[in-house]
Structures are given as structure tokens and as C-alpha cells.
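User: Predict the complex.
Assistant: Input components as received:
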Amino acid sequence: MPRASHSEDGADWGGTPSDVSSGVLSPDFASRSGRRLWEEVIKGALFVCAFLSVVTTLGILFVLGKEAVTFFEDVSVSEFLFGTRWTPLLEPTSFGVLPLVGGTMLIVVGAGALAIPVGLASAIYLSEYASSRVRSTLKPILEILAGIPTVVYGYFALTFITPMLRIILPSTQVFNALSASLVVGIMVLPMIASLCDDALRAVPHSLRQGAFALGATRFEVSRRVVLPAALSGVIASFVLALSRAIGETMAVTLAAGATPRLTGNPLEPIQTMTAYIVQVSLGDTPAGGIEYKTIFAVASLLFLITLVSNIVANRILRRFREVYE
Amino acid sequence: MSSWLDSTPSNLKARHQKAKIFSVLCTLLTWFSVVLLAVLIFHVSRQGVTWLDGKFLSSFPSRFPEKAGVKSALWGTVWLIGVTAVISIPFGVAAAIYLEEYAKKSRINTMIDINIANLAGVPSIVYGILGLALFVRWFGLGRSVVAGALTMTLLVLPVIIMASREAIRAVPSTLRQAAFALGASRWQTIRHHVLPASIPGILTGVILAMSRAIGETAPLIMIGALTYVAFTPDGPMDSFTTLPIQIFNWASRPQEDFHDLAAAGIIVLLSVLFVMNAGAIFIRHRSARGQRW
């Protein structure tokens, strides 16, 4: 018969391999069927823990969907998706999400323009050029860069990058999309570098050696042999990093401002989808009002965009992984 | 083959030149990150170091910059991370064990697999909204440490699961086969052999997950942790603030002095993260030395 609950048993994980004697061989249970039942109970409990992740996803879908549906009872879907004015907190209210989406895209484009070339170049350097000693110094530094909290990057953008930009481009405003997008680019750069590095290093050495033997320079080997062979991993890393940039919150809240507007000028203040959600939750918006529901509508859109790009990236990784024998 | 390898002597020189330029470019762009990190740390230190003293650590926030400190934020962070760790580690490790040791290739397990990969990419603010609707309002936990910790648990679970899976996968299957051969059941094998052997890897992953949780700001703002808090939490049901939230609060004020306070707060936050990561590296090193296979 099972004598202990799973949690009691599971708490005792600190054992070392030396305590083999503590019951592995001596039968803990009176009958074989009791032991088998116990095994099934544990398996079930572990499965429940793993299934929790699916429950989380369902929870997100349910919570977002429930409030978003009531939002769309008041505001039509087409007004939300195609409207060009976003003033839910001011009279006359208007619920066109395009300015927020535009602001987000401005950040993503800027971040990508910085992070993709620098990240890819770093990855090529790390996997094709760097000696193992240089590599073992650079890798941890990139990890540190990736581990710095986003609020710190926000502070850095506000107090360092923006003043710098204002010296170079005097028309830059205190809150501007450029500064925020640069700092988001810095933030996702380590992610691109390390994912691309993994992809490039997975290319077998025989391919490189073959190209070298034909007289190719290191640049030609990197560009014509290694990069094409690792292309799926490289592209997937770009998609993942940009999806991360879409969801980035604190840096854009601090540095990009809170002015939803549809503009292509990165020197002006804008507002992203994430920054809007933060703005509303900082204020005293009563639950149940239309303002409160807007954050669920915006968050649903944000969730959909990032989910689709993540699924695409993971698909690319799974489907097009080059297999070398 | 294509023309890029046909090298007449004249374009051989050009090709080598191109290769040279490319290698210099890649090197420079890589070191750009290092310079950036140095600039960031230098900038923060220069702004914040004069404000950093014992009083800063032992005072509560204040509207006068010279009296303000991070005491409530520091303790709030300790409480939040403590409770998060207690909840998230058992669930995360259990899920990893199931996926690595039990799960056969079935539709539901593939679904869980893909689902975890996707959850890792969900923006943290979405978790904040989930926490707000589910824990703060539905469960009626209010703006408490527990509500924050539960939200953080959902956020870091994918990280813990993925790191733990990798650690468990690294245990050689010969170890399992030996245990099975001696008549051990699957769970006995896991509990007495696989888990002890993978503990260093799991710990490293857990520390990295916790350091991610320490730096998170957006989900906690969503569940309403950003209130002026002039006390340290006494229990898991108390309201709280954390270091990143305090930093955000200070950085979003227009006055210069508060920006410098934010920098001082950042130094404290980065120091905590540094100590945790040093711990992770230490564990990794020690276990690499004691490796028996």
C-alpha cells in the first residue's frame, strides 16, 4: 500500500548516490501490486505538474478572451484594428489601435536594425574566428548583457542614450522612439548572438574543411557554406528576438514616452502596446470600465502577435533543421 | 561549381582583402557589446555611487531624495523570490522529470513540449495580466506577496523546466540501466540516482530562473505592487514593493536627484544578481570537477 503522500516523498531529494542502501533493493511495499500502484500515483502527479503549462496557456487565453469579448461588445473589431486614433482615456474617446501597433513596430524595426547585423556578426566571430580563450571570455559577457533587468536598460536609455542623441540630433525629444529602440536592440542582441552561434556551430566541420580545401577564404566559407547551412537556425533566432522586442515593456515605458501616435519619425515620443498597458495599470482605473477592458484587448493583440511569431520560429527550427550524417 | 572559386590572380587579392575587412568588422562588432556593458556599468556607478551608503539600504522610500532608501524594496524582493522559489522549484523539476523520464511520444506530450517552448516567449506583461485577473481578483489574494509569487512562478516555470530537462538529459542512461538491472523501479531510479546526479545542473538553472524573476518589473506593476510601501512585509499576505519597481518609480520622475537614486538602486540590484550568478558559476565548476563519467 502506498504509505506516504507524494509531496512528502518528493521533498527528500537531497540524497546522494551513496545512500543507495536506503531502500532501493529492500522491498518497501508488502506486495508487488502496491508498489506498482505507487509508481502510477507518482507518474500521475508528475504528469499533472507538466500539464500545468498547458493550463497556464488556457488560463491566458481564457482571461484575455473573456474581457476582450466584452470590450468588443462596445467597440467594433474593425474600429479597433483599423482606427488611427487611440484616445481611450480622454474625451472624445477613440479606440483605434493602429498608433500603438505603429509605435511597437517602430521600436521593433530600430531594434532589429541594430541587433540583427551586430548579433549575426558576433555569432560569426564567435563560431568561425575566435580562439577558444577569447570565446570563453566573450560568452559570459554576452550572458551578463542578456541578464541585465530591462528596467536598468530603460534607465540607461533615458539618462545616457537620449542625452547623447540630443547632442547629435538636436531635434530629438526627451522621450523618443529611437533611444528606446536602440536599447531594445542592445537587449535582444545577446539572444541573437547566442542562438546564431549555436546554429553555426552545429554545421559539421567537414563542410568547412571541404570549402577551405577548394581554396575559399574564411569569409567565403562563412558566407557561402556555413551561413546557408545554418540558415534555418539563424532566421528562427531573428524571429524569436524580434518577438521579444515586441513584448519588451519597461525600457519603452521609460524611454519612449506615452503619446500614442502614428508616426515614422523616431525622434518623437510614441507609445507601444506594452507601454499603454503599464500606463493604465499605474493609474486608478476601476475594474469593469471600458478603460480597464482596453488593456485586455491590447494584450490579446500583443499575445497573438508574439504567439504567432514564436510558433513560426519554432516551426522553422523543427521543420528545416539540416540533418548531416 | 559557382564562380566564386574561380580565382584569376587579380581577384585573388581582392578576395583576400574582402576576407580581411570582414574579419575586422566582425571582431569590432563583437567587442562593441563588451564596450557597451562597460559604458553601462560605468554610467550607473558614476551616477549612483555617491548615494549608496548604509542609510540608503536601511531607509524607506521618501519624497525627499536625501532621506529615501530601498529597505522595503530589498525586503520585498527577498520575500517575493523566496516564496516564488518555494512554489516554482518543485513544480518545475517535477514537470521536467515527467517529460524526460516518463513521457513517451504521444500527441499530448508533444503538445506539452511545444506549449512550454511557446510559453517561454510570451511577453512578461501578459503574465502580469493573467496574475491580475486570476490571483489578485479571482482568488482574492489582493496585491500580496503570494499573488506576486504565483505570477512569477508561471513566468519562470518554462525556464526551470527547460534547464532541469537539460540537466536530467545529461545523466548517462547507463546509470539508469544499472539501477533497473538491480530491480529498482522507475521512481526509485529517478529518486536515488538520476536526481542526485543532476542536482548541480538543476540548481544552476534554478538560480538563473530566479535571477530573471528578480529583475522582472512589468508583471508586478500589473498586479499592483507599485504602491508607496513604507514597511517591510511580515508575511506572505502583506503588500510589497520590489527593487526594480522602486527603480522604475524613481527613474520615471523628472528630478535629477531621483535619477541618481535610481542608479544607486540599480547598483544594489546588479550586486544581488552578480552574487547569484557567481553562485551558479561556482556550482557549475564544482560539479564539473566531481563528474564521475
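Chain B touches chain A through 102 residues (CB under 8 Å).
Let me know if you want any component modeled separately.
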